[in-house]
Inverse folding.
C-alpha cells in the first residue's frame, strides 16, 4: 500500500498556524523597536526644547540689560537647565554682548542714531546645547550737539 504524501493533509493546519505565529512575532518585534525609537526621539526633542528655552531666557536677560554689556555668568534657569552669555565654548568664561557703535537708520535725520549690539546666549539641558545669536538696535539717541 503506497501512500501519496501530497494527498495527505494531516498537519497542514499546524504549519499554517506556526507561520501565522512567526509573522505576528515579527510584527510585534517591529512595533516594540519602533516604539522605543519614537520614545528616544521625543525625549531628545524635550531636552532640546528645554535647552532652547534656557538660551532664550538668557537672551532676554541680556537684551533687557542693554546698553550695559556685562557678561551673564552661568545661571541656573530650571532644575535641569543652565544658560550663559556667549557661545557653547564660553561656558567657563561668559562673553559680553558686542557693541558695534552708532549708526543712522532710515526715516531719521542725521541728528539721530541708533546703537547696535549683538547678543549671544547659550542654554544647556542634560548636555543638549542650543545657541541664540541676534543683533538688536537700541535708540534713537541724539548723535549731534543740539545748540
Amino acid at each position: 500500500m503506497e501512500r501519496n504524501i501530497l494527498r495527505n493533509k494531516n498537519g497542514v493546519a499546524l504549519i499554517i498556524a506556526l507561520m501565522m505565529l512567526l509573522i505576528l512575532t515579527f510584527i510585534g518585534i517591529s512595533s516594540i523597536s519602533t516604539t522605543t525609537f519614537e520614545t528616544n526621539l521625543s525625549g531628545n526633542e524635550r531636552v532640546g526644547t528645554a535647552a532652547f528655552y534656557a538660551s532664550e531666557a538668557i537672551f532676554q536677560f541680556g537684551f533687557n540689560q542693554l546698553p550695559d554689556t556685562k557678561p551673564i555668568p552661568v545661571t541656573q534657569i530650571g532644575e535641569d537647565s543652565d544658560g550663559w552669555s556667549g557661545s557653547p565654548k564660553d561656558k567657563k568664561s561668559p562673553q559680553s554682548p558686542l557693541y558695534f557703535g552708532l549708526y543712522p537708520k532710515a526715516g531719521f535725520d542725521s541728528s539721530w542714531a541708533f546703537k547696535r549690539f549683538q547678543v549671544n546666549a547659550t542654554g544647556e539641558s542634560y548636555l543638549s546645547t542650543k545657541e541664540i545669536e541676534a543683533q538688536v538696535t537700541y535708540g534713537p539717541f541724539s548723535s549731534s550737539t543740539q545748540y
Remarks:
- The longest strand covers residues 128-142.
- Residues 12-142 form one domain.
